[in-house]
Amino acid sequence: MLILECPYCGVKAEETELAAGGEAHLKRYGPGSSDDEFHDYLFMRENPKGVHFERWRHANGCGKWFHAARCTMTLEVFGTYPAQTTEPPQEICDKITAKRPGWSWREFSDGRKSSAA
Amino acid sequence: MSKAVSELNGARYAGLAEVADAGLRGMITLRGDLDSAVLKSAVQAATGAGMPGIGRISVAADGAVAWMSPDELLLLVPYEEAGAKLAALQAALAGEHALAVNVSDARTYLRLSGEGAREVLAKVSPVDLDPAAFGPGQFRRSRLAQVAGAFWMEEDGSFGIICFRSVGEYVFKLLKTAAHPQSKVGVY
Ligand SMILES: [Zn+2]
After folding, report:
1. CA of B184 relative to ligand 1 center, distance in Å
2. ipTM, 2 decimals?
3. Quick one: closest CA in A to B128, which residue?
4. Superfamily for A3-108?
5. Cα angle at A36 between A31 and A40, to 5 degrees?
6. How far apart are CA B69 and CA B73, in angstroms?
């Protein structure tokens, strides 16, 4: 059972109180973008064995969207944080680095951002 | 105008706990900036109750205010006064970025009381209802089996439960089943 703490109401919500919202921190490509950019935005998703960032909604609760950083292999949750951000907060990255040195996910990684995006 | 009746029309059931229709209750949903002094005083004027903390309900003589989310409150007022309270609230909030709506007739309001109340509610909701984790004044929006619902604990240990009117009968029967005399778990 996955338990995530909602950063808005502080409730430690178990999975049946939440709705999954897919991958976090997607960058939108709309009018003016190339076909490849739009294609990747629509269809290309990470599917990691390990560190992952997701969007969740406290659907049977305060109703707010938030972000969660967790491990897809062990179900360990590194932390949750509000939706009003385009990247994981440093505090969350530090927690992941402490547990999974050398991690990387899209353009985010252990310690510093790479330019591989 | 025809006489308003609650959806459960006075239904009651006594088992491990007593499940009862709590009748008509005025309910106003208010969304806005909960830190706004104007909003706070308008809420106080409408209900007689102060601002609740996160996950709490503050109760006054004939009104109450429940914390629904970082930008939403639920005001409980006498059913007959909901219209007038809403008008006063909207007047007080003129110019504020806020929205208030009378949702009284969209809801069903139940009371769950008696020794087995915690256990009965815990059977249908994924909430820790241990006395150390949930006590009087706490308010929780969650799930009642398959539908959304909210509940809080009163000073006397009973629970007020709110759900959508469309699923009121479902929730009543759900609690009735969970309160069956031969279904005692005895965990609390
Ligand atoms: Zn929440």
Report:
1. 31
2. 0.92
3. A12
4. Folate-binding superfamily (3.30.2270.10)
5. 90
6. 7
Whichever domain contains B37, its CATH number is 3.30.1360.120
Closest CB to A10 among B55, B68, B126: B55
Q: Do the domain assignments include residue B2?
A: no
Does the structure show a pLDDT above 70 at A114? Answer: no
- At A1, is the pLDDT very low, low, confident or very high (cuts 50, 70, 90)? confident
| CA of residue B2 to ligand 1 center, whole Å | 39
Cβ-based neighbour number of residue A41 at 10 Å:
14
Q: Look at chain B and report how many structural domains it folds into.
A: 1
Distance from CA of B106 to the nearest CA of A (A): 18
Residue A6 alpha carbon to ligand 1 centre in Å: 5
Q: Which domain holds residue B21?
A: 12-179
Give me the helices (H) in A8-83, please.
35-43
In a domain? residue B4: no
Burial B143-163 (b: 16+ CB within 10 A, else e): bbbebbbbbbbeeeebbbbbb
Q: How confident is the model at residue A112 (pLDDT cuts 50, 70, 90)?
A: low
Residue B74 in domain: yes
Are B117 and B175 spatial neighbours (Cβ–Cβ below 8 Å)? no
Q: In this predicted model, what pLDDT tens digit does every residue of B46-83 receive, in sequence order? A: 999 999 999 999 999 999 999 999 999 999 999 999 99
Q: How far is A83 from chain B (nearest CA, A)?
A: 13
| Full-model pTM | 0.93
Express each pLDDT in B26-45 by its tens digit. 999 999 999 999 999 999 99
